[in-house]
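Protocol step 4 of 6: structure prediction from sequence.
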Amino acid sequence: MRRSFALVALVALLLGGCLDRAIAGQTIALVARTTPAIEADDDPDLVEAAAPAGLLQLEGFYVAYGGDRRLLPLLAQATCGLGAGFVQDHWEEATLAGRAEDARALAADGRTLLGRCATLALEWLGPRFAGVLDVDDARAAAMLRGAGRGDAAMLYWLGTAVAASIGIDAADQRLTALLPRATAILERAVALDDGLDHGSGHVVLGIIYASRSAAIGGDPARGKAHLERALALTGGKLLLAKVMLARFYAVNTRDQALFERTIREVLNTPPSVWPEQRLSGELAHRKARRYWKYRKRFF
């Protein structure tokens, strides 16, 4: 009798595990299908308000389902999106407005989120890329040469997380020393998949190269080429690429006419020009309005 009960219990446990895995698969697939709806949303404030709860839910799924690797890309995208898309944006506003205390707090929050994004990306990439941020250049180059197209998205999130962290905390010299490595990671990612994140891989590279003059190691012309590539990939609909062209390339080449013309062009283009990426368009408009407001700071 005890043996029969134990057998029934074992079958129930195994069946429960199978059902749990089935539920996990359905849940993960459902979460993945919600991403386009978020990207098409027209209310950045609503998306931002909901983001922390959604992120916690994703983390809960990841723990509950035994670290299912299918969740890692979703987690990385959500974490980097909150850190770079919203927290960094508020940091920038606080910095330009002279609210130093707010800026410091936002920078700390942003670095925490972006550090988590980098950790998730490295976890997904696994042993082949262990230490890719820390090893010497030759070893890192060898790792990146061994990457395949399937690695591109997580290399993109890793490079974006590091680059965005530097953007909000350039005073951390240990962190800023990683900029060449983050750049190499992003270059490999877009070489493997040119259209990553709707051209955003090129936008991040464009910012990196165009944000510094040639005299201090930048390459504005190369940055402009990456931003123009993002626009070519999206039929000119990625408004954020135009805004970054104005903010970084035009500012660092002292081309005020290009800055003003480009910002006006963005503001005269409705965010709905690309319905599937309406959220990106709304955020681009937010930045364009900010840069227009503070344009005298740049020239």
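Step 5 (inspection) to follow. Residues 1-19 have pLDDT under 50 and may be disordered.
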